[in-house]
What does this fold into?
Amino acid sequence: MEWQSIETAPKDGTIIVVVVEGKRMNQDIPYCPSLAYWEGEGWVDPDDDEPGSWFPTHWIGLPNS
It folds into this structure.
């Protein structure tokens, strides 16, 4: 499994790992990995974000258990 452009990510509610470019939550890190899923018109962080409030650039599926 390899990182892919966010345009190829599933938009069916599947939770995936995404990477968001830029600082997040006042942390000084250039890229921030997070879990996300597509809802309606944008990506959602399962913990707290509204759809479309942030913009991941790449994604990878969760490992099989």
